[in-house]
Amino acid sequence: MIEFSGVSKYYDQDIILKDVSVSIEKAEMVFLTGPSGAGKTTLLKLIYCAERPDEGHIVVAGWDIRKLKQRTIPFLRRNLGIVFQDFRLLRNKTVFENVALALRIHDMHPTEIKEDVFEVLKDVKLSHKANTYPAHLSGGEQQRIVIARAMVTKPTVLLADEPTGNLDAETSATIMNLFRDINTRGTTVLIATHNKSLFQGTGCRILYLRENQIEKELIG
Amino acid sequence: MRIFIYSLQTAFKNLWMEKWINFLTVLSVSIGLLILSTFAAITLNMDAVIKRWAMSFGLVVYVEDNLSKEKENKLKDLLQRDPDILEVKYISKNQALKELRNIMGDESAILEGFENNPLPSSFELKLKSELLHPDLVKGKASQIKDLSGIEEVQYGEKWLSSLNKITEIMKISTILLGSIILVAIVFVTYSTIKIFFYRRKDEIETLKLLGATRSFIRFPFLLEGLLIGLAGGIISSLSLFGIYTIIAMKIPLFMPSIKAIMVSLPLSIYLSVPPAGAVMSFIGSFIAVGKIRY
After folding, report:
1. Are A120 and A112 a contacting pair, CB within 8 Å?
2. Which DSSP string do the residues of A122-183 spell out, in sequence order?
3. Strands A188-192 and A157-161, sheet pairing
4. Per-residue pLDDT tens for B263-284?
5. CB-CB neighbors (< 8 A) of A71 in chain B
6. Angle CA A5–A8–A10, to nearest 5
7. What is the mean pLDDT of chain A?
8. Which residues contact B257 (CB under 8 A, 6 or more apart)?
9. Is the CB of residue B77 less than 8 Å away from at least one CB of chain A?
10. For A89-185, where are the E strands, in sequence order?
11. In what order do the strands lie in the sheet with A213-219?
């Protein structure tokens, strides 16, 4: 589902990623870990095409990232669900509108949007907050809305960048359960985190990034 | 279609959310368009006045003194067949003398000193309005003068060239003022939409990450610009109608002569202002949104 071969990325003279080669299978759940500045976020950005590789090849869900034209990027991203540490919810829209936005971009019929949004809000146990604005939600609730927004389009790949970075242990566990549920439904999940407790005992593959390279692969 | 409806809803929502800055932009656009349409109304009225003046313009063709009646008739026939000439009026020697006597009144006794009528017979010609240009009239006059039996051709050369100058100045002023105002409208909308675009930068980034296409991101901004221009245009048209109606009613009360000159503004002027505003504002917002990069 995700294939990196000999990928390098530089910012001016600084090496961000060097000769990264990794393969993530369909419906696999993988953790990406390592110290700050190791290149975790850049690796995710390369997948959703916010950055382009300077060397090597990346294939995501059948899309060759190097060959992708600017106007085609949105169509690649429609296959991906992205969860950010800083949530990126639209403050002037309600919970319902925030989640529905992803489906509007997919040009879905309003009736289908309503059904799907309420279904996914039920999955993250926040259907009672549909008309609430993000500012009135806790950090954990906001992150669940972000996950709902990422899930609602039924993406083939779900990427999460430090999804529990601002959350307490109990809320983090809830969020992780949601990711496991999504993965069980057949979605490939890649989570970048430096929080070891998230992947310990999961039995998932862990990619350890250090000094801009994948230093080792472990099983959690 | 669904994206269009969604964009329209978003545009209206955003217009309402930023109502004050939008109100000021609509006001600026409408003032600009009002100045432009007022100028167009003035031009239209002046044009009507000039056309009226032009109606009285004519060429006087003096015939050689010893020309026979038969030759004069042939000449008249030739002039009447000319497609550039609208009207040919023959003035005989006697008629010319009679008119001169009328003009001179008491002093006409001077004319009694002449043994013979010293005045030539002549033709008064009215030309087609599209020919009322100094160069064209000059050409026509020399063409007529070359005809056999013609002594002289006279016309108000200076008057015609002044008239032509006024028309030219009016045309250039309209184009210049119109261009300045239209560019100003583009700029005003550009500034407003640019501000909105920067304010919603985070929102745009999120939309991009969710897989929104360029048109999905652009459309609400373009529609906002278009609606601002349209609203400005409608306000401007209504204001022009109001102002013009009041002027048409009130001014003749103390300047009755203006009633004969004033023309009623054609509906096309009122109808063309809102689309003009919409197009200019649309261009402004299109430039403001610029190229969206992923």
Report:
1. no
2. HHTT-GGGTT--GGGS-HHHHHHHHHHHHHTT--SEEEEESTTTTS-HHHHHHHHHHHHHHH
3. parallel
4. 788 898 899 999 999 999 999 9
5. 213-214
6. 165
7. 91
8. none
9. no
10. 157-161
11. A80-83, A157-161, A188-192, A29-33, A205-210, A213-219
Helices marked H in chain B: 2-17, 19-55, 69-81, 93-104, 134-145, 157-199, 201-209, 214-254, 258-261, 267-289
Instruction: Give the largest Cα separation in chain B, rounded.
Output: 105
Name the band, by pLDDT with cuts 50, 70 and 90, for residue B52. confident
Q: Give B-chain residues touching A73 at CB under 8 angstroms.
A: 294
Is A77 in contact with B211 (Cβ distance < 8 A)? yes
Task: Specify whether the CB–CB gap between A162 and A193 falls below 8 A.
Answer: yes
Domain boundaries, chain B: 2-53+162-289, 58-155
Q: In this structure, what token pair is assigned to residue B118?
A: 């010293």
User: Tell me, what's the pLDDT at B288?
Assistant: 95
- Judged against a pLDDT cut of 90, whether residue B195 lies above it is answered with yes
Distances from the Cα of A88 to the Cαs of A99, A107, A108, in angstroms?
A: 12, 21, 22
Strand partners, B143: none
Please give the Cα distance from B47 to B163 (Å, whole number): 11
Lowest-pLDDT range of A7-11, A93-97, A163-167, B203-207: A163-167
Would the pLDDT of B4 be above 90?
Answer: no
Which of B210, B213, B291 is best to mutate for the A interface (most A CBs within 10 A)?
B210
CATH topology of domain B58-155: Alpha-Beta Plaits (3.30.70)
Give all domains of chain A, ordered by start, each with its CATH number: 1-78+196-220 (3.40.50.300)
Helix (H/G/I), strand (E/B), else coil: B139? helix
For B152: left if phi > 0, alpha if psi spans -120 to 50, otherwise beta; the answer is beta
Residue B212 in contact with partner chain A when CB distance is under 8 A: yes
Query: What three-state secondary structure class fits B131?
Result: helix
Residue B157 clears pLDDT 90, i.e. is over it: no
Read off the DSSP letter of residue A159.
E
To the nearest whole Å, the CA of A144 is away from the closest chain B CA by: 16
ipTM: 0.89
Cβ separation A73–B202 shorter than 8 A = no
What DSSP element (H or E) covers B66? none
Q: How far is residue A68's CA from residue A1's CA, in Å, rounded to a whole number?
A: 16
Interchain pair B211, A106: CB under 8 A: yes
Cβ B23 vs Cβ B115: under 8 Å: no
B12 touches chain A (CB under 8 A): no
Helix (H, G, I), strand (E, B) or coil at B140: helix
Strand partners, A59: A3, A64
Residue B265: partners with Cβ closer than 8 Å, 6 or more residues away: B41, B44, B240, B244
Tokens 């069980």 — which residue? A184
Residue found under tokens 């030739």: B78
Q: What confidence tens digit (pLDDT) does each residue in B10-49 have?
A: 899 989 988 999 999 999 999 999 999 988 888 888 877 7
